[in-house]
Each structure stands twice: as C-alpha cells, then as structure tokens.
Specification:
Strand content: under 5%
Distance between the termini: 38 Å
Strand order of the largest sheet: 1-2
Number of helices: 16
Largest sheet: 2 strands, antiparallel
Shape: globular
Structural class: mainly alpha
Amino acid sequence: MLTQIKEAPAATPIDRLLNATADDMAKVNALILSRADSHVEMVPELARYLIESGGKRLRPMLTVAAAQLFANGNGSAINFAAAVEFMHNATLLHDDVVDESDMRRGKPAARMVWGNKASILVGDFLLGQAFMMMVETRDIDSLGVLSAASAVMAEGEVFQLAKTGDLTTSPEDYAAVIRAKTAVLFEAACEVGAMAGGADEAGRKALAQYGLELGNAFQLVDDALDYGGQAGTLGKNTGDDLREGKMTLPIILALAEGTEVERDTIAKALGDPEATVEQVADVVAILTRLETLPRTLAKAHEHARAAQQALEVLPASDMRALLSDVVEFSVLRAY
C-alpha cells in the first residue's frame, strides 16, 4: 500500500517576505540585540524579554523590503529598520502600562515581571537608541520622517486615552486614533525604506501611502479580531479591548445603532476589567446582530485596496507583487 504524500502548506506572503528579506533582517536583528545592551542589568533583561518574544517584525521587514524594491540603496535601511522596531517596542512597553495589560504575545507583559516604572524607563531607553541609530545614518530627511512619526504616535495614544470609555466617540475620532497610533509608523517605516533604497519623490510617496493604508487595515483587523473576527467567535482573549474601555469601530457602530437595552449592556461592560465571560458574550452577540464586525472588516478591505493601488505607480516586479500580497494576507487573517 502506497503512503500518500501530504503537500506542505503553501508559504504565506509573510513567510515569503521573511525569505526575501532574510539576509538584511539578519543584520537588523544583530543590530537590535547589540543596541539593546546596557551596563545597567535590568535594561537588556527587560528589552530582550520583549524583543525576543515572538513578534514577526513586520514593520522593519517592510523597511528593508521597501529599500530592496528600489535597489539603489545606501546601506542605511538596516539602521532605520532597527530604529523602527525599537520605536514599536517602546510603544508596546508604554501601552501595556497605560492599558494595565497583563499579557503580551502570549507571555506575561514586561510590567508584570519588572513593574510599571521599569517598563516606562526601558521604553524611553529604546526610543533613545532608536534616535541614535537614525542620527548615525546622517540622513536628516529620514530622521525628520521618523521623528514626526514618533510625535504623532504619542499624540494618538493620548487621544485614545482621552476617548477611553467615551460613549460619544465617533467613527472619525476612531479613524484619527488608529492613523496616529498604528498607521503612521507603518507609513514611516515604508517611506524611510524607500528613501534608503534611492527612491525618487514619486516612489517615496507611493511607499508612504502604501504603509499608511496597510497600517489602517492592520489595526481595523486587530480590532475585529478582539471580538472573534468575522464570525465573532469567542476565544480566551476575546473582549480585552472591551474590558480596557477602548472605543473601537465595532463598539462605536453598535452604540450608534443598537437598542437602548443593547447600549446599556455595552456600557456596563465597557471599561470594566472584571467584566465576565457572559457579559462579553452578550456584547459579541450584539455586534453580531448589527454586523459591526464584517462592516469593520469591509473598512479594512477599503484601506487594503488603497494600499495595493498606491503601488501601481511603480514598475512591476516580484517585490511589488509580494508587498501587494502582504496587504491581502493581513486582512484575510480575520476570517
């Protein structure tokens, strides 16, 4: 009897991006680990705990991929990619303190191990190192792009904090929050990668727009996934945003369109860290009835299409096609 040979699962676009950027990302990873070092023992302990905790490093991969796309690089993409990852990890450390999060990437959040004060201070250390790596490139234009992104991200976090539990939050407020707290770093990561790759002004703008739209799509999908994605399937982490009082699009739409009883059900659970599984299930049922999850994902698809369209001004290439596929995959993960 012949044994049936099973086909290996097809590589996802993220896997293909990992392969395409592997050589440069090895340099980025080495730089990240070296720059996370410090003579103060707690700094590398905490920094590496987060850095090595399993994230795919999509943002720095996009920086490297954007540089490769234009293939006329000056070598600075490595520094920029590492700086982008440090900026991202600094915001994660700070966010977990602000949100009082217990878990990050399936592990106890750094603040649960070392405390809030250490998490904030090591986040500041990572930001300092990020700016040092930028300055070392002597590229003032790219430094300006990443510096501006850092300021906007901080504004976005403050705005989100101000809107926590605010039942009057509008879809426009939400769009401003996700643009600032998530999409702007994707935008900057892609733009400085293009600049490091020798892109002309049109190419630079195309990659910036691509990153911005991808970042918006990425966050919309994340916010739908917090309630189980397209199907509203309950899982062990379902409802974290609800308990933290985050005004995400599925909730904003439901508050605007639900019955008085439904609005009251949402309001009672929103921002309550002790909200029960049953309360979360009741809220998910409301989101399902009003179809706010598929509508959130439809909005993600709009941004995904805009990201793909931004690339169309560039010459056709394998890397351009791969970057387009990455956008599509980032949306499909919610199904």
